[in-house]
């Protein structure tokens, strides 16, 4: 007999218990490159990350690291740009480079059986990129046009200004590109950075999936050569974080109908004992679709279509930031509503029903993030950067399950003080 579903009562859920993380093996190549191996999955597919100390910090200026990473795939001594693209397409593979603050990561995803064909291509890209003059000029002109277009968007202006205000314009995390960088950067700088930073010193390889029994021999053949050498990448030093003394910053954009908001403060990285507990507090405030900011600022007050908050960890610090876009005339009302929700977390303990919901959401998200060897390898790569292992997430699970409303209220009182908050508005 079929009965009507009870749509007023949600399904039961169970709180996640102890997690089992994928084991990490590994080996060293003859030239000292360390290889981490996360084997798993049901398909014969492999994902390999080559991590080089070739990020914006080592570059010492905006644009340089990402330009090198993107142009590496546009031709080598042995292959043209078209030949590289055709080979990747023929084998249904994926090859790209992503540049971050402290490193650049070249990633190959392909069928395991195709590794003997595609690893020589990766070796060629890493060791023999030519940065053809024509390709370089095409790329720079394209990036310039994209920069001009992006600079018209208030959310980009607010994001750039927020980091500059929090860290200072001379700090690598606060340094943002200006239009003239496209005219002052040279191809010679690009080639020099490539030769100095895409070297075995500081390189790390992470292999995930089902790479086969000959993966060590293949990587040794193509990346273990002791004759492959180069300079020692430099971190270029870190100036002191120099946050602005002014807490309110307005970036006017003529003709804009909306204002982009960034409200937040400087913080610490994931080594700090309060980092994990603050992740729970942040989730309650604005870290998921059912958060207080979404409920109050979006649904109840109708001030914005979307709003969220996040805590970001860097090697040399961190930030807590709330981001949204509102109609220009609603700007102050939105700022007041955001601050009001932060103050409510200071004044009132979170009730157990809401806390249970957030616990379940965060633990479920953690399971999703560790779904499969490829996702797990991405997390492992991030942990390596901070000198951590999967024990960090075991601790996070314990904190999520055990933190109390009283502890969250104490954290809110400590880190949500109005005098610590910076407000950046871009628009009108």
Structure description:
- This is Insulinase family protein.
- It comes from Xiashengella succiniciproducens.
- Pfam families: Peptidase_M16, Peptidase_M16_C.
- Residues 185-360 form the Peptidase M16 C-terminal domain.
- One of its GO terms (molecular function) is metal ion binding.
- The protein has helices at residues 56-59, 64-71, 81-90, 115-128, 133-150, 154-167, 181-184, 187-197, 215-223, 275-287, 292-300, 331-347, 352-369, 372-385, 391-402, 405-415, and strands at 25-28, 34-39, 45-52, 94-99, 104-111, 204-209, 248-252, 258-267, 307-314, 317-327, 422-427.
- It has 16 helices and 11 strands.
- The protein is 43% helix and 18% strand.
- The chain folds into 2 domains: 25-223, Metalloenzyme, LuxS/M16 peptidase-like (Cytochrome Bc1 Complex, Chain A, domain 1, 2-Layer Sandwich), CATH 3.30.830; 248-427, Cytochrome Bc1 Complex, Chain A, domain 1.
- The model has no long low-confidence stretch (mean pLDDT 92).
- It has a 6-stranded mixed beta sheet, sandwiched between helices. Strands 7-11-8-10-9 form a 5-stranded mixed beta sheet, with helices on both faces.
- Helix 4 (115-128) runs parallel beside helix 9.
- The longest helix has 18 residues, at 133-150.
- The chain has 428 residues and is of the alpha+beta class.
Which strand order spans the largest sheet, edge to edge or round the barrel? 1-2-6-3-5-4
| CATH topology title of the largest domain | Cytochrome Bc1 Complex, Chain A, domain 1
Give a count of the beta strands, DSSP E runs of length 2 or more: 11
Number of helices: 16
The CATH homologous superfamily of the largest domain is named: Metalloenzyme, LuxS/M16 peptidase-like
GO molecular function, one term: metal ion binding
Domain Peptidase M16 C-terminal: 185-360
Pfam families: Peptidase_M16, Peptidase_M16_C
Protein name: Insulinase family protein
């Amino acid at each position: 007999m079929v009965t009507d579903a009870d749509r007023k009562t949600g399904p039961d859920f169970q709180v996640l218990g102890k997690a089992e993380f994928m084991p990490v093996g590994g080996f060293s190549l003859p030239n000292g490159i360390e290889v981490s191996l996360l084997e798993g999955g049901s398909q014969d597919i492999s994902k390999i990350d080559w991590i080089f100390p070739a990020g914006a910090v080592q570059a010492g200026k905006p644009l340089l690291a990402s330009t090198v990473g993107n142009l590496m795939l546009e031709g080598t001594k042995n292959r043209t740009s078209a030949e590289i693209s055709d080979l990747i397409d023929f084998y249904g593979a994926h090859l790209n480079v992503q540049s971050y603050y402290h490193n650049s990561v070249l990633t190959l995803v392909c069928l395991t059986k195709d590794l003997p064909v595609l690893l020589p291509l990766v070796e060629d890209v890493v060791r023999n990129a030519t940065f053809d003059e024509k390709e370089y000029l095409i790329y720079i002109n394209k990036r310039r046009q994209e920069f001009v277009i992006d600079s018209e968007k208030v959310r980009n202006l607010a994001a750039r200004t927020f980091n500059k205000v929090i860290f200072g314009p001379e700090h690598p995390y606060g340094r943002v590109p200006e239009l003239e960088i496209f005219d002052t950067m040279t191809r010679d700088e690009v080639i020099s950075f490539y030769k100095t930073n895409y070297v075995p010193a500081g390189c790390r390889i992470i292999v995930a999936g089902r790479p086969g029994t000959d993966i060590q021999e293949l990587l040794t053949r193509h990346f273990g050569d002791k004759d492959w050498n180069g300079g020692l990448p430099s971190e270029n030093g870190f100036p002191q974080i120099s946050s602005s003394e002014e807490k309110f910053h307005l970036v006017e954009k003529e003709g804009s109908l909306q204002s982009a908001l960034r409200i937040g403060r400087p913080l610490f990285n994931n080594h700090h004992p309060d980092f994990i507990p603050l992740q729970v507090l942040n989730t309650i405030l604005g870290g998921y679709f059912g958060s207080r900011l979404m409920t109050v600022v979006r649904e109840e007050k109708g001030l914005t279509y979307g709003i969220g908050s996040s805590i970001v960890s860097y090697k040399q610090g961190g930030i807590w930031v709330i981001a949204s876009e509102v109609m220009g005339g609603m700007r102050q009302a939105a700022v007041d509503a955001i601050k009001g929700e932060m103050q409510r977390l200071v004044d009132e303990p979170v009730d157990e029903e809401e806390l249970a919901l957030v616990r379940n959401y965060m633990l479920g998200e953690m399971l999703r993030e560790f779904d499969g060897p490829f996702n797990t390898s991405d997390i492992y790569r991030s942990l390596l950067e901070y000198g951590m292992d999967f024990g960090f997430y075991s601790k996070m699970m314990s904190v999520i399950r055990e933190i109390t409303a009283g502890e969250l209220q104490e954290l809110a009182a400590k880190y949500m003080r109005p005098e610590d908050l910076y407000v950046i508005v871009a628009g009108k």
